[in-house]
């Protein structure tokens, strides 16, 4: 059953597909970047397990876990930075758009308070919440928050999300076997983390 998944995730091009999807989903949250990262992690588990049992070596077509984590994290930070800079230069039109949205205004206030206090747990939480990454990146730029306050937390958020997603795919396949069931359970765990992050973000008081 896993052959179809393995054929999709095997080969060096998977790195480019994952990186591009993670980079762009700050603008298009509907992109299945989490699905791709988990599928690649599952393929890595299946390929490395089969290769180790047969030859003791991992073939070149099997995704490398460390490379997946680092590329996904780097693409996440780069996407955040692009959104941040676009919002920074958005001017009064973007400010008016944010002012018309209660959700965006509240998010901007909470983010500003978190960064002003020297903490950025909200940025990390937002990376797991649906569309939270987009809201935080655009609001940070629109509020003209300093890059040195925002980017380190963006890097931590991207690395945490990438490591968590790859680990879900890898260990899901190790524990449940390289099947669609393992991928489904891993995706459920990712969506569960997103729901929990969204709940925690709503509970945080505005500054």
Largest sheet: none
Give average pLDDT, whole number: 77
Beta-strand content bin: under 5%
Briefly note the structural class of the backbone.
mainly alpha
End-to-end gap:
51 Å
- Fraction of residues in helices? over 70%
What's the Cα radius of gyration? Answer: 18 Å
How many strands in all?
0
Polypeptide structure, described:
- With 207 residues, this protein is an all-alpha fold.
- It has one domain.
- Helix content is 78%, strand content 0%.
- The chain contains 10 helices and no strands.
- It has helices spanning 3-9, 13-24, 33-54, 65-88, 91-99, 102-116, 121-128, 132-142, 147-176, 180-203.
- Helix 4 (65-88) crosses helix 8 (132-142).
- The chain is elongated, with a radius of gyration of 18 Å.
- The termini are far apart.
- Residues 1-5 and 50-59 have low confidence and may be disordered.
